[in-house]
Amino acid sequence: MQISDILSVVKADFSAVDRLIHEQLASRVPLVEKIADYIVSSGGKRIRPLLVILTSKALQRSDEPALKLAAVIEFLHTATLLHDDVVDTSDMRRGNPTANAKWGNAPSVLVGDFLYSRAFQMMVELESLPVMKILSDATCVIAEGEVLQLTNVKNPDISEQQYRDVIHGKTAMLFEASTHAAAVLAQASLPQQQALQRYGTELGMAFQLIDDLLDYSGDAQELGKNVGDDLAEGKPTLPLIHAMATGSEEQRQVIRQAIRRGGLDQLEDIVRIVQDCGSLDYTRVQAQACADNAKQQLELLPPSEAKEALAALADIAVMRTH
What we know:
Layout (H helix, E strand, L loop, with lengths): L2 H7 L1 H14 L5 H11 L6 H12 L5 H24 L4 E2 L2 E2 L1 H5 L1 H21 L3 H24 L7 H26 L4 H25 L5 H4 L5 H4 L5 H9 L2 H13 L5 H10 L2 H18 L8 H15 L3
Antiparallel strand pairs: 1-2
Helix pairs in contact: 1-17, 2-5, 3-7, 4-5, 4-9, 4-17, 5-7, 5-8, 5-9, 8-9, 9-10, 10-16, 10-17, 13-14, 13-16, 14-15, 16-17
InterPro entries: Isoprenoid_synthase_dom_sf, Polyprenyl_synt, Polyprenyl_synt_CS
Family: Belongs to the FPP/GGPP synthase family.
Catalytic activity: 5 isopentenyl diphosphate + (2E,6E)-farnesyl diphosphate = all-trans-octaprenyl diphosphate + 5 diphosphate
């Protein structure tokens, strides 16, 4: 099953969410609307709202509140992107200039704040305290994950567990919140809620592991961002952590220096080292384990196209090239 097949399962609902997102971008301040519409319309895969819709359908509860929850999740995600690009001084995302590259840092941060605020306005309309708790807790964990990553920049002594803590916070948490909140909103049984929460966590981990792998093996045009961005920022991701743990002393020192300095002067050397050390293969194996764990969580769901699509999404997370 391809991503187009998955989207066909939820075509009408996905279109309704898209309309709702654009309706909710309305603002009395034209620049807010302009920047928000730019980033929301910039070609993202919208995996997180897709998870909300698929989870709701798999629980036989796809309705207006589910669509609103999907839009809330997309606004939360888009807000984090606006803030991340400022923090990372990124100038390219999804093959387009970032909002901060076009309009500057201050408007980007403030529009990110607007999207967070609008998300919480819509969240209140759901009238579900359990869902509000899941999403408000998630936003705190995401913010902590981003700060944790920031404190780890240019530090070559990060362990694999510390790396996993970062990617759980900054990426997997919103995947987890998407499926967990959808299950709670659909009034699923407690075992189903817990299984779907775990599914989201594992799927999010798989996605981020592959993202970090592609930073050393992808194609810039296909990725929609610059290859080597993580190295340029001095981020110690799993391919580098594994290579330092398994490579020769000389290879380890090359990586340590590259992380400490940041920049792309040694990108070719680093790519060669992570390949020689089997670090890209190791990262893919870890991503596959997460995807397999995610699929196991779906056993509590009744048979449906949506359930099959959720399982296929876990496979796509690992096999994708962008």
